Amino acid sequence: MKQSHLVIVANTLPVRRVDRGGRTGWETSPGGLVSALAPIAKREGGAWVGWTGELDRARQPFTHEGLLNVPVTVTAEQVAGSYEGVCNRMIWPLYHQGVRPPEYHRRWWRQYVETNERFADSAAAVAAPGAQVWIHDYHLQLVPRLIRARRDDVRIGYFLHIPFPPSELFAHLPWREEILHGLLGAECVGFQTKTDAANFARVAKRFIGAKRTKAGIDIAGRSIRVDAFPISIDTERYATVAARPDVVAQAERFASQLGSGRKVLLGVDRLDYTKGIDVRLKAFQQLLRNRPETKRDAVFVQVAVPSRERIAEYKELRRSVEELVGSINGTHAEVGSALVHYLRRTLPFEELLAMYQAADVMVVTPLCDGMNLVSKEYVATRFDDTGVLILSEFAGAAAELKDALHVNPHDANGMAEAMARALSMPRAEQRRRMRAMRRVVRRHDVHKWASEFLDALSH
User: Fold this and answer.
1) pLDDT tens digits, one per residue of 321-358
2) Going by fewer Cβ within 10 Å, which terminus of the chain is more open, N or C?
3) What is the rounded distance in angstroms from the CA atom of residue 216 to the CA atom of residue 218?
4) In sequence order, what are the residues at sequence separation of 6 or more whose Cβ sits closer than 8 angstroms to the Cβ of residue 282?
5) How far apart are the C-alpha atoms of 433 and 332, rounded to whole Å?
6) How many CB atoms within 10 Å of residue 331?
């Protein structure tokens, strides 16, 4: 197998299997991470190590559109224990401030270790001497150390896309030392915010005796850079597509269908309990009670992308959200004029951007989020500098998008007040705030994020 000087390691490959008229093949997957890293990896003659999504299916490495894809074989048992168990029911709730009680099972952990070892084996095999290996996210927290044990000649970077919890929460993990040692196999460990990086440095000092330095951490004679590298989007792509005449026309149709003269509030999220969809809808319900005129003047659209539907907490969330939608419409709507439009599906890219265009107010209120790119996507599409962004103070994006209306996502009354303010905000204030946020998103796009991390890793 050809060896590469840049190796990306992520839970899934940047391609997916598709059926074209009875013939199957590969196509590039959508998403910001793929659009940011695939061009860099191609330019450097790089490789991407990840899972195809198939169970118990061994595939040989293959090249797709100039990028070497190295599939990792994952068994059904490993998916159940590592992905559905450790990742979704232990790490995910704990790292998101314990918004749901995490579960701890040793049988899951064994599968997590085995899965991480498979990824490490594949990455070590494809990395050229002195290569840069960049590992992504909470699925693979043991991989840096495992690669270090196999290949001490390569430079290893790790980036966590979700929040990193404070010491008081991280302390609950039965395998906290294993995770810390796993991550500190890297030369550079990146996080979304300065708070996340500081949390990591504190727990490394508390639990494994690492010494904090100006640049990060010293442990066992090694210096590891620990810092914030806030991720972003492909700003130019969003701005260009949003300005296309067909997308603008679709946005005008959406606005007309939702009611001429009515302002549109929009939420776009995975149907996940960390996103605060239920509290957001309760806030809109409160707004309708406090300001009855809102029934004539505004409408709420919630796009909820299905997620992890086999897990009980997600089934319960779906039931709760759909009951809220029914309750709001049943109590406040008139015949032929719903107040909440609920779409439980993924929207095509152009349709999503048209929806952003149609929205007067974007409501992004996760209970806890590493970054939340929806907020940046909305800003990037607002080429006329109008629109208002309501943003949770517990989203990583709040540190950059200071001209949003920041809210406490647990406070339904406070969010209702923010919605009222957004709906009545003068155009001059909208433009001042939106122009400032658009400058931020243009200046720091996903390509700059990737180049800054790789530059830090190389030094």
Assistant:
1) 999 999 999 999 888 789 999 999 999 999 999 999 99
2) C
3) 7
4) 324, 412
5) 32
6) 11
How confident is the model over 347-356, as pLDDT tens digits? Answer: 999 999 999 9
Do the strands 361-364 and 263-270 form a parallel or antiparallel pair, or are they unpaired?
parallel
Give φ, ψ of 382 to 5 degrees: -90, 70
Q: Which two tokens stand for residue 349?
A: 């890219």
Phi, psi for 379 (deg, rounded to 5): -60, -45
Name the band, by pLDDT with cuts 50, 70 and 90, for residue 72: very high
What is the per-residue pLDDT for 29? 85
pTM of the model: 0.95
Of 428, 349, 350, which is closest to residue 388 (Cα–Cα)? 428
Residues 6 or more apart whose Cβ sits within 8 Å of residue 423 = 263, 265, 294, 297, 298, 360, 361
Please give the Cα distance from 155 to 457 (Å, whole number): 7
Q: Are strands 23-28 and 15-20 parallel, antiparallel or unpaired?
A: antiparallel
Cα distances from 425 to residues 202, 230, 382, 428, in angstroms, run 42, 29, 16, 8
Run of H or E including 235: helix 235-242
Tell me the residue length of the chain.
Answer: 459
Q: What residue spans of 274-342 are helical by DSSP H?
A: 277-290, 294-297, 312-332
Give the number of other Cβ atoms within 10 Å of residue 384's Cβ: 12
Is the Cβ–Cβ distance between 90 and 102 less than 8 Å? Answer: yes
| Secondary structure (DSSP) of 125-148 | HHEEEEEEEEEESGGGTTHHHHHH
- Residue whose C-alpha is closest to residue 297's, from 428, 420, 118: 420
Distance CA 364, CA 362 (A): 6
Tell me the pLDDT tens digit for each residue of 226-270: 999 999 999 999 999 999 999 999 999 999 999 878 999 999 999
43, two tokens? 């330019």
**From CA 76, how far away is CA 115, in angstroms rounded?**
11
